[in-house]
């Protein structure tokens, strides 16, 4: 598999299974969706589908909520993290273009988890 199309990104897990894996109720999960903290896909039958990455995100959210962090603060932090990741990806791409332009070989391999 390549880059972003990891099995962890595939939205195939039902909300019932997510509840079993996380210990969260359907109501809690739907609330996090309403607060724009999680973004499940919908099947043709309108059922929510989640990925393993979504489950990890839900666990992070639940832990932060338990620590007293407000959903607004969580959403802002998630936005910052996404922007930082996008910025790093753009910088890596720019560096790759510079290296290609000047024939610089980059022998260090970066593996994404």
Automatic annotation (TrEMBL):
Give the compositionally biased regions (Basic and acidic residues). Answer: 83-94
Source taxon at top rank: Bacteria
Q: Which Pfam families match?
A: MerR_1
Matching entries from Gene3D superfamilies are given as:
1.10.1660.10
Provide the HTH merR-type domain boundaries.
12-80
Q: Which InterPro entries match?
A: DNA-bd_dom_put_sf, MerR-type_HTH_dom, MerR_fam
Segment Disordered: which positions? 83-113
What PROSITE patterns does the annotation carry? HTH_MERR_2
Output compositional bias ranges, type Polar residues: 104-113
Alphabetized, the UniProt keywords read: DNA-binding, Repressor, Transcription, Transcription regulation
Q: What's the protein name? A: MerR family transcriptional regulator
The scientific name of the source species is Litchfieldia luteola
């Amino acid at each position: 598999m390549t880059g972003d199309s990891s099995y962890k990104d595939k939205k195939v897990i039902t909300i019932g299974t997510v509840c079993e894996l996380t210990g969260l109720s359907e109501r809690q999960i739907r609330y996090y969706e309403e607060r724009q903290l999680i973004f499940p896909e919908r099947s043709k039958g309108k059922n929510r589908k989640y990925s393993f990455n979504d489950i990890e995100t839900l666990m992070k959210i639940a832990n932060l909520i338990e620590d007293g962090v407000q959903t607004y603060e969580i959403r802002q932090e998630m936005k910052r993290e996404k922007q930082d990741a996008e910025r790093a990806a753009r910088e890596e791409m720019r560096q790759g273009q510079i290296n290609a332009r000047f024939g610089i070989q980059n022998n260090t391999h970066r593996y994404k988890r």
